[in-house]
Amino acid sequence: MGAAAPFAGPALAVAGAGMQIAGGISEGIAKKTAAQVETVRLKMAAEAGKVKALQTDAAFREEWNEVDQTIGSIRAGQNVEFDSPTAMALYGAARDRSDRARVQAVSNERLKALGLEGDAAAAWKRGEAARTSATLSASMGALSTLSKSFS
């Protein structure tokens, strides 16, 4: 029984180092999982942004159709020729303003979605790096503990 005692200290040091490494791996896995959850959340938000861009485009087009019909009704009610140069210029200017506003609004939504996709990719990379970093940190701590135990 007395012969086993000299090995108890080093054995406990090795066991402690192993637990330290396991703890580091566990911490890294937890950080990676949290980053993956964040990645999924951001990807879903980006997809919602893409849908919002499509909805915005459709809403602007629908609004323009209503404006176009109103302009046509007013012109017909006032017996204005449809090919009048002044009327065509006003109609063209209104269409151009609507198109610019539509393009700008849709572009803004698409840019937001693109930004969220970039954030999702960054979160994924942070998760990968966190796992590696935690594992390496725990391994270095364990090696330091072992070197102190055996010196």
Can you describe this structure in just a few lines?
The protein has 151 residues and is mainly alpha-helical. The protein has helices at residues 5-77, 85-149.
> Unreliable runs, pLDDT <50, ≥5 residues?
none
Indicate the mean pLDDT. 85
- Helicity, in percent? over 70%
Question: Based on CA inertia axes, which overall geometry fits?
Answer: rod-shaped
Alpha-beta classification: mainly alpha
Number of helices: 2
The largest sheet, given as strand count, sense and whether it forms a barrel, is: none
Strand content: under 5%
What is the total domain count?
A: 1
Rg calc: 33 Å
**For the terminal residues, how far apart are their CA atoms?**
25 Å
Strand/helix succession: HH
Description:
With 151 residues, this protein is an all-alpha fold. The protein has one domain. Helices cover 91% and strands 0% of the residues. It is built from two helices and no strands. α1 runs antiparallel to α2. The chain is rod-shaped and about 110 Å long.
